[in-house]
Input
Amino acid sequence: MPQTPNLLPVELLEEAAECLRILGHPMRLRIVDILMQGEFPVGQIAEMCELPPHQTSEHLRLLKGHGLLSAQRRGRAVYYAVADPRLPRLLQCIRAACEGEK
Output
């Protein structure tokens, strides 16, 4: 008799698919990779991504809007940080998979 596979619940897969959809842009992945190193203001993130600040802000707004990042105003600057505890493991997986191809 064949064994029944141990499948993830559909609700969990839907949540994962939404997270992957939001992260499905190279600059958003770059932003998360940067924020894995600590908190940074928009201007610094934009410089590291080599993007104009307005484009960086749009990516940050989307990531924050889906609960992946947090933001804190300090004076005139807004600092962003990783908020979702799944992101470090996900980035480690991506890094390992990409470095394994070389």
Q: What stands out?
A: The first strand starts at residue 40 and ends at 41. The chain has a mean pLDDT of 94. DSSP finds five helices and three strands in the chain. The CA atoms of residues 4 and 27 lie 40 Å apart.
